[in-house]
């Protein structure tokens, strides 16, 4: 045992001496209550954040619905313009065909006139006169004259009509091409609008999905807080019950007969253990506070409701938290300070500034007893 303590002392020699305090049931209860309060605050924050995320998601979804409607309109508009362009292309093709036919007619009429002009040129300027004066009668002369006049007028009018028709068709073709150019501009604008809306739809969908992921994470976090809160409420209830049990046990100790100090047989290491537990539980307290902690240990040794040795009391399960945490073993290995050894000696000699109290902890509302420094003894 001595070798173990020496090895532990070597291993922990670099550890600075710390002033530590008791972590009693009431301390744990207060800690659990504080943690519960913090968890409730985190839960409320998570809930508020979740509500905000859901509201943002709802707004984005509404915006996305509007964008989808705009996209449908843009798609329909694009289809309508493409249909109009197709109609214009068809009309241009038909106009171009009509123009070609008109050009052919004009060319035919021009050719016919050319033939007639060639005939007159070849026969001379008297060709029509010869034909007129070859008439056998004045009536036949008039008939031939009218015929010549009609042929000449027909040539002039036909040529003029086909020229006008060609000009009209050419003008229509130009107007159609202008319309087509305008529609091409509208088509590009419609395509750009559709692409812009599609980009917005894509970005908004991604934002909605991002918010949904955040909502999912926040919901998980909220469920974790609720689960933790439930566990803390159970811990609080258990600690509250334990505190009530300690109060009841303290009252019961007061009704029992304590063993006489002279009947207690101390072991070789009891003083070291007493000094170590005093330093662990009351290292930062006054000298009287140190003696009071030692007195609690001795009161338990003298009580029939607790173990009857210093070691038995100190190592009793879940009674002194420094024992469970390992701090007690460290202090015991290196040895407690002189003040704690002196307080241990006084307590083991029977000094008790707290009477027969068998519990101590930091003050909490509703807990009464003897207060020395940062501890209530009861």
How do you describe this structure in short?
Helices cover 77% and strands 2% of the residues. The chain has 378 residues and is mostly helical. Helix 1 (2-11) crosses helix 9, helix 5 (270-282) packs across helix 9 (327-334) and helix 6 runs parallel beside helix 10 (338-348).
- Integer-rounded radius of gyration: 57 Å
The N- and C-terminal alpha carbons lie at a distance of 35 Å
How many runs of DSSP E, i.e. beta strands?
Answer: 3
Note the beta-strand portion.
under 5%
Shape: rod-shaped
Give the H and E element order.
Answer: HHHHHHHHHHEEE
Helical residues, percent: over 70%
Count the DSSP helices.
10
Q: What structural class should be given to the helix and strand makeup?
A: mainly alpha
Mean pLDDT: 76
* Poorly predicted sequence stretches spanning 5 or more consecutive residues: 1-22
Described by strand count, sense and barrel closure, the largest sheet is: 3 strands, antiparallel
- Widest sheet: strand ordering: 1-3-2
